[in-house]
Automatic annotation (TrEMBL):
GO BP annotations listed: chromosome segregation; DNA replication; double-strand break repair via break-induced replication
Binding partners and assembly: Component of the GINS complex.
Main subcellular location of this protein, as a coarse class: nucleus
InterPro entries xrefs: GINS_A, GINS_bundle-like_dom_sf, GINS_Psf2, PSF2_N
One matching Pfam family: PSF2_N
UniProt GO cellular component terms: GINS complex
Name of this protein: DNA replication complex GINS protein PSF2
CDD domains linked: GINS_A_psf2, GINS_B_Psf2
Subcellular locations according to the entry: Nucleus
Lineage: Eukaryota, Fungi, Dikarya, Basidiomycota, Agaricomycotina
Family: Belongs to the GINS2/PSF2 family.
UniProt entry tagged with the keyword DNA-binding: no
């Protein structure tokens, strides 16, 4: 089956979530488990009630089986997100500092472990507001595009993936125009 044209030039959001699932996250296990080796590395041992760091994919698997509680990252709190949103609004020229894969990780945690988060509805709202503020900055940055570079530092993986198709086509067109201008002069 062929992918739709817009998805051929970029990674799908589901693929980005899969890549982000390699990130380590802290859990409180509800079961004991010896150190176990996987392709990506060895994790464990798990001993309740001691915290452990394991990949997000493993934490999701254990959470769905009700064998752990996920400890949300520090940046996935109402206070931290409110602070980042205030920074986004206050500084129109720069993006606030967020983890590179915060969109994917927060989506997975809100889908699977919302009971482990404080105020998940408020977190969802803040993430949506943050996303809209950052998208507005991205669109504004793309308006100032020239054929040599795009200066949008601080973008996350999902944001880069969203603008990639437009950016690649635009840069190609601008480069052709620059070459044509140089050739005619």
């Amino acid at each position: 089956m062929a992918l739709p044209v817009p998805l051929r030039d970029s990674v799908t959001p589901h693929e980005l979530e899969m890549i982000a699932s390699q990130q380590l996250i802290e859990i409180v296990p509800l079961i004991a488990m010896e150190r176990t080796a996987f392709i990506s590395g060895a994790y464990g041992p798990l001993r309740p009630p001691s915290k452990a760091k394991i990949p997000l994919w493993m934490a999701v698997n254990l959470k769905l089986k009700k064998k752990c509680h996920i400890i949300p990252p520090q940046w996935l709190s109402v206070e931290h997100l409110q602070d980042r949103l205030a920074q986004e609004v206050a500084n129109p020229d720069a993006f606030s500092d967020l983890p590179f894969r915060f969109t994917e990780i927060s989506k997975v945690l809100l889908d699977v472990a919302s009971d482990d988060l404080e105020n998940p509805d408020q977190i969802r709202t803040l993430l949506k507001d943050l996303r809209e503020a950052r998208q507005a900055k991205s669109r504004e940055g793309l308006r100032h595009l020239d054929h040599s570079e795009l200066g949008l530092t601080g973008l996350t993986s999902m944001e880069i993936n969203e603008i990639r198709p437009f950016f690649v086509q635009s840069m190609s067109l601008l480069t052709k125009l620059a070459r044509n201008t140089e050739a005619t002069t």
